[in-house]
Amino acid sequence: MKKIQKFGEWAYVCGNIFVAIGVGMITKADLGMSMVAAPAYLISLKVNFLTFGMAEYVFQGFLLLVFCIVVRKFSWKYLLSFITALIYGGFLDLVLLIMENINPVTYLSRATFFAGGMLIAGTGIAFFFHTYLPLGVYELFVKGISEHYNINTSKFKIVYDYSSCVLALAMTFLFFGKIQGIGWGTVISALINGILIGCISKILEKYIDFSPATNWYKFFRV
Fold it and tell me: What distance, in Å, lies between the first and last C-alpha atoms of the chain?
């Protein structure tokens, strides 16, 4: 089968949309946020004037600072990742607004929403890992540190997911004194999300050529 050609720029668009839809579905399932999104979600629950999308780019701004410290490098082009975080946050709030009146009630419907959300969000992250355009800060953190220390990206993603899960647990007790926004779905995400993204990436690579359609990549080199 002939591959879809020169999809580098479209991978960025798909990444933003797919991740926003996936996280929106996981939020509606209410079975526990994915471990990566959980810290921002807990911030939005704690700080009333912050929407989930706004809390996302606040937290990603902090994560970008940590990334620069870890790799001991700063490029103004890293700030473009924060712009991606703003775009994603806007998409996420829009998705949640559209889904405002969608409330899965039965356990089966909630589990279906959660599973579908994981698959869609995982596909979005896989798209992000194949574009040269500015990654969201989460993806920049994983991909950038993996490349900096020559670590397999999928394996480091698993470590990052586990670390996010631990951070979310600490935050929920610090903020609320009890578990909130975290459930068995969070644990499942932490266990299989990195593996799922790796598998989806391999499938995408079979059918899509992620080379750029323009020469914009020269501008985005860091």
Answer: 34
pTM score, whole prediction: 0.85
Name 85's Cβ contacts closer than 8 Å, sequence gap at least 6: 56, 57, 60, 61, 136, 137
Cβ 78 vs Cβ 222: under 8 Å: yes
Please compute, for residue 188, the number of CA atoms within 13 A of its CA located in the half-sphere on the CB side.
13
Does 13 fall in a domain?
Answer: yes
Is 80 strand, coil or helix?
helix
In a domain, 125, yes or no: yes
Q: What is the pLDDT of residue 222?
A: 53
| Mean pLDDT within 42-67 | 93
d(C-alpha 113, C-alpha 103), whole Å: 10
Q: State the residue range of the domain holding 153.
A: 8-214
DSSP string spanning 162-200? Answer: HHHHHHHHHHHHHHHSS--S--HHHHHHHHHHHHHHHHH
Residue 189 is predicted with a pLDDT of: 83
Q: How many domains does the chain have?
A: 1
Q: Is residue 20 part of a domain?
A: yes
Distance of alpha carbon 137 from alpha carbon 56, whole angstroms = 10
**CB-count burial class (<10 Å; 0-12, 13-18, 19+) for 68:** middle
Q: Does residue 19 fall inside a structural domain?
A: yes
pLDDT for res 205: 92
CA 31 to chain centre: 18
| Length, in residues, of the chain | 222
Mean pLDDT of 188-209: 88
